[in-house]
Amino acid sequence: MKRSKAPPHQTPDEEIRAYALTLGFDCLGVTSATLPAEAHDRLQSFLKDEKQGDMNWLKERAAQRSHPQALWPDARSIITVGVNYGPDHQPLDNLAFKSQGNISVYARHRDYHDVIKKRLRVFATWIAKTFKTDVKIFVDTAPVMEKPLAQQASLGWMGKHTNIVSRSYGSWLFLGEIFTSLPLHPDVPQSDHCGSCTRCISICPTGAIVAPYNVDARRCISYLTIEHKGPIPHEFRTAMGNRIYGCDDCLAVCPWNRFAKTCSHDDLKPKPENALPSLLDLITLDDAQFRARFSGSPIKRIGRDRFIRNVLIAIGNSNDPQTFEQSVIDRLTDSSSLVRGAAVWALKQLIPQAVQDNKKQFLKQENDPDVINEWLCDK
After folding, report:
1. CA nearest 103: which of 207, 285, 248?
2. Does the pLDDT at position 3 exceed 60?
3. CA distances from 343 to 148, 224, 227, 372 (A)
4. 32 by DSSP, 3-state: which?
5. How far is CA 254 from its chain centroid?
6. Is the pTM of this model over 0.85?
7. Largest CA distance in the chain
8. Which residues are catalytic?
């Protein structure tokens, strides 16, 4: 790849920024390969209180997360990029369609990890060849504290919901990083502009933002629908509504979104079938159909059983027994105990009498303790 000709006065930093825009990155910032003690302390406090839930990988490589040079000792600078995925509507409006599934904005299109990593490879290769330096790329798949790095690189600030907020793109930025041995001039860290606003805290359906800048993942609907492997705790099921993959509430309510822009990247445009899919269509998916339906989507990684668990919780919240009764009953004999247990709960919400009519028959053939508990408990 030939080095593009730059004006004589252009520094490496300026060359890098200019080239980033040609690859479709919406913003870029540079920071040193270090993080402040505050980032380390927050992570340690989060892990000490076990707020990571099933995400034990956060604890396993915590030292590398807090210290980028522990991940790669040769790193001198970190180039942080942002890609806008702003929706063309208010995501909160989707909560009203109770017989349809609400999928988080970020998961309605191709897996952003693949999209951004492809661009980063081109970008990193150009940097390595142009400046004769070593590089490594990351997109949310390695022990990298992306959000503190993005704030330090001036892409935005960490809001009270602990996500990045941008003056130009609101709450809708995908992040990626290039670690390099090249010394670059760091940007001035972005200051916090949340002020006294607490909208993200107030709107959280499960009270997961337990204090400003402090999230308990075990209560978060995004965590529960994506990362949590077992049955959804009873206390959060009604609050989930029709959310079947992720939750956008704390992002969507942010007043800085008045400056947000609709995503203009063709490879990140939402797929129509993922906008508000019919719960009735989704509940019948077997494993092969699930994989085919969500091929190339981040949804695929949670697997069919967890996804159908989420769909059944949404159906239980639909208040539409006429539409869903038979589909829910069909799932009482599903091969997955996770699905069977969620089906019992959904049936209780829609048609309590049907639970009494079926309990004796299904308890005889059930050997999973979680499913048995679903049949016997009063919730």
Report:
1. 248
2. no
3. 40, 17, 20, 12
4. strand
5. 17
6. yes
7. 82
8. 140
